[in-house]
Write a structure and sequence with these properties.
heterodimer; A: eight-stranded mixed sheet; four-stranded mixed sheet; globular; B: mainly alpha
């Protein structure tokens, strides 16, 4: 004890409303059109605003820098954004439609090293009608394009004369958002302070510190010593975290899933009965139980179950080895020579299952699947490759039998790039899935702006793909996180009185109401 | 001597060019690309092609190499990962790494040499066996494992954070407390970094000392009645430390090179971590520049060791 007193003494917690978030990686660009990593986008969301953003249930948009907007349907739809007046950049200049136009132009500029261009490629023109009105015209109806206007808007007056790829701005950004940039100490921390002039009102927290701790196993230590307030939690830490009296632990299904993709060019997997048999034979509940410590759900299809476009009537195919054997027999696969391996026309049911090395979860899934498929008489070889080799030599050139992979999705349901047959050649449909009805529905979904009608389309797609089982949808992991119990939401009730509410997990994430977070006075940490 | 130095410098220059060409080819031809490391269906292949063009990755290898050289020396070399000047990125971390490794090396030398002498003077006694045992333990314990244990132990015992270079909430600290806080955060990583070095260097010192004290002139010195202290510290130690001088060759690159593992475990923002992240992100400009700097330091270290050796040992003549 003596040493610790000598070095650190004992002190009371500081009287600032601050939140320390831990991250495994440093940010790269604090510039929403250049950043690709999650650390950068987290901080961008504190500093910058988009024109619109998703609401808390992720099923429609609400205005951010745009007060409202008008959609004109037709073969070349137009969106007119009516911008908020009197919004100030953190340096005091007023935000106008010129900034929006500038941001759009920079994204479209081929010299800009941005990966965001794809979502804007169907825009035919973007014009400033007056300082507070901005209009975009699309070449053809493209409803997923609306989401892309949530991208952070950049200040024209600060970047106009700079090379955006290397500008100093990317390290000391100026935005319109609820928090102002203060400092960035490389690989240590990024600090932002409350913006007192924020157009939705000053945030309740004075300061957010984004702290970089590269060794995830030690993040837990920091949570326990209050070196961080908020951090992601691994499944294996979850149970003991829930027992810490001063931590709140949250969970939420991730926007994404892990699956086994079958190369449909391989004759082995061309029969739908065989693919369904494979899914029946893989005990996904067991995988969730042992690989994810029970912290996940069996995936029903390609959409996350908690969002509006996932078909609620769909159930995952049950684990049923009997049914699997029956389907395989029907498709002609029987063990005729008694060696324990199914065969057909003298060829045994053998295939190689590949995934990327270094991902322990996928490795464990592979081992379980190998054993489960052995039980119904399939011989699976597991192989692991380094990520870039895995992509370059196997997945992208379709040189594989089956692979374990995962998709992280955007909120908009459009997954044309993954499933449409036009994407087999050069896109992300590397399993070579082809279903004309599904193709037509994806196209229709892109043309349709009405939520209710889009829902019907995606429900149907969900159903059709689940029926085809071109992949075995394995599981949707739960995203887990822990937060110190000192944070609350400060809200006004009907009479205008201020009340404190516990922080809830929303579909749009725990941080959806971040601007209302406070550390109430008089709350101290229990050790 | 001057001719020797000039010739060595010329050889070093040629070696350096060879190193940089070979590493450029290996680094850029290894699988993977700095663009779109993750599979994102919202990024079309067309955009990836355009980005490759922006980064000059579509040019032939030799042209890319010369572009790198030209940009490095004109100060216009930017990292792919965050668009910052590469030299600036390296410069801001070099002091952190110097501090950590400097302290570690200080600990190594100030403990290992006395330990080695101590063991040598008491060869085949219990203390010597204990020292040998301790040294093998120090060499064989995986440092990352020890680091975890010590971090867990420290946190359990003192309940105070140890990661990073400093505490996070330091606004109300006095100057003295800030210094104490920095020292507190330096102790664990530097001690762990030093353990392997102490073990190895004390072994070197011991065996080199043992070799020297068996020499005739030591026997002579003892025979003519010189006190033990003078024999050991004046006559034996000087000669025993000669081989240690060669270690300076490894010392300089070690000081700057950083330690990927310790810097990662202790969230220490140093060069090792920068290099490691750059390799993962295929950030060629950063990887190549750090690689070249390290090569220069290794060459310089060897060079200085040779010169120092000549100064310390008058028997050495330069051809």
């Amino acid at each position: 004890m003596g040493i610790s007193l000598l070095f650190v003494g004992s002190r009371a917690a500081p009287e600032v409303n601050q939140l320390i978030i831990s991250s495994i990686g440093d940010a790269s660009f604090l510039n929403p059109i250049l950043s690709q990593d999650s650390a950068s986008s987290d901080i961008d969301s504190f500093i910058f605003n988009g024109l619109i953003r998703y609401n808390r249930d992720l099923d429609r948009f609400v205005g951010e820098l745009a007060e409202s907007w008008k959609l004109e349907y037709g073969p070349e739809p137009k969106i007119t954004f009516f911008l908020r007046k009197g919004v100030l950049w953190h340096d005091g200049k007023e935000f106008t439609a010129e900034d929006v136009k500038f941001t759009y132009d920079k994204i479209m500029d081929e010299k800009t090293n941005t990966v965001r261009r794809s979502s804007f490629e169907l825009v035919s023109s973007a014009e400033v009608l007056d300082p507070y009105t901005f209009r975009v015209t699309y070449k053809q109806p493209f409803s997923p394009g609306l989401e892309s206007w949530g991208i952070g808007i950049l200040p024209k007056h600060l970047l106009e004369k700079e090379d955006i790829n290397t500008a100093a701005f990317n390290r000391k950004p100026i935005g319109t958002g609820p928090f102002k940039f203060v400092e960035w100490v490389t690989d240590e921390k990024i600090v932002v302070d409350a913006n007192p002039d924020y157009f939705e009102g000053r945030p309740g927290l004075d300061r957010i510190i984004y702290r970089i701790i590269p060794e995830t196993a030690l993040t837990e230590m920091e949570l326990l010593t209050r070196g961080v307030d908020y951090a992601g939690v691994f499944p294996f830490e979850y149970r003991r975290m829930t027992q810490v009296p001063f931590l709140n632990v949250y969970s939420q299904p991730s926007l994404g899933y892990t699956y086994i993709g079958y190369n449909l060019k391989n004759p082995l997997f061309q029969d739908k009965r065989v693919r369904r048999a494979l899914t029946h034979a893989i005990n996904r509940q067991e995988i969730v139980q042992y690989v994810l410590y029970g912290l996940g759900t069996v995936a029903t299809g390609l959409f996350p179950n908690h969002l509006w476009y996932s078909n609620p009537h769909l159930k995952p195919l049950p684990y049923d080895p009997q049914e699997a054997r029956r389907l395989l027999a029907e498709a002609g696969w029987k063990d005729t020579n008694g060696d324990g391996i199914l065969d057909k026309d003298g060829k045994p049911f053998r295939f190689t299952l590949i995934t990327n090395s270094g991902n322990d979860t996928r490795r464990d899934v592979g081992v379980l699947v190998q054993r489960q498929l052995r039980e119904i008489g399939m011989e699976v070889t597991l192989e692991f490759y380094e990520w870039s080799v895995f992509l370059k030599d196997f997945v992208n050139v379709k040189h594989f039998d089956a692979c374990i992979l995962g998709w992280s999705l955007s909120v908009d349901p459009d997954a044309y790039e993954i499933w449409h047959s036009s994407q087999i050649e050069k896109g992300f449909n590397f399993i070579s899935y082809r279903n004309p009805e599904v193709d037509r529905l994806w196209e229709e979904g892109r043309r349709e702006y009405d939520l209710e009608r889009r829902k019907q389309i995606y429900w149907r797609i969900d159903e059709l793909i689940a029926d085809d089982q071109p992949v075995t949808f394995l599981y949707v992991p739960l995203g887990l996180s822990a937060l110190q119990k000192i944070f609350f939401l400060l809200e006004k009730d009907a009479t205008g009185k201020e009340i404190l509410r516990p922080i809830k997990m929303e579909k749009a994430g725990l941080m959806y109401d971040l601007q209302k977070w406070v550390v109430p006075r008089g709350i101290t940490m229990e050790r | 001597m001057l001719a020797y130095i000039l010739r060595r410098l010329l050889y070093m220059f040629i070696t350096l060019i060879g190193i940089s060409i070979i590493s450029w080819v290996i680094i850029t031809q290894a699988p993977g690309s700095p663009i779109a490391l993750t599979m994102d269906p919202k990024v079309s292949p067309k955009i990836i092609e355009q980005m490759e063009k922006n980064y000059d990755l579509d040019k032939p290898v030799h042209q890319q190499y010369f572009l790198w050289l030209q940009r490095l020396f004109s100060g216009t070399l930017y990292s792919f990962k965050d668009g910052r000047p590469v030299l600036e990125k390296i410069a801001e971390r070099i002091w952190n790494t110097l501090l950590l490794n400097g302290v570690a090396i200080l600990i190594i030398f100030s403990l290992a040499i006395p330990l080695g002498i101590f063991s040598a003077r008491r060869q085949y006694t219990l203390m010597d066996y204990l020292g040998t045992f301790g040294a093998y333990l120090g060499i064989s314990i995986p440092s990352f494992w020890l680091a975890y244990l010590l971090i867990l132990g420290t946190v359990k015992l003192f309940g105070y954070p140890v990661l990073g270079m400093r505490s996070f909430v330091t606004e109300d600290f006095t100057h003295v407390e800030i210094v104490m806080d920095r020292i507190w955060h330096l102790i664990l990583p530097s001690v762990i970094l030093a353990i392997g070095g102490i073990a190895a260097l004390s072994r070197y010192t011991r065996s080199s000392m043992l070799e020297v004290i068996r020499q005739d002139y030591i026997r002579t010195a003892k025979a003519k009645g010189l006190p033990d202290e003078t024999v050991y510290y004046k006559h034996a130690l000087r000669n025993a430390l000669l081989p240690i001088v060669t270690l300076f060759g490894f010392l300089i690159p070690g000081l700057i090179g950083g330690s990927i593992i310790m810097e990662t475990i202790f969230a220490w923002p140093g060069i090792g971590r920068l290099a490691y992240q750059a390799v993962l992100a295929r950030d060629y400009p950063v990887v190549m520049t750090i690689n070249t700097i390290t090569a220069v330091l290794v060459l310089l270290g060897n060079f200085f060791a040779d010169i120092l050796y000549g100064i310390a040992d008058p028997r050495i003549r330069y051809p």
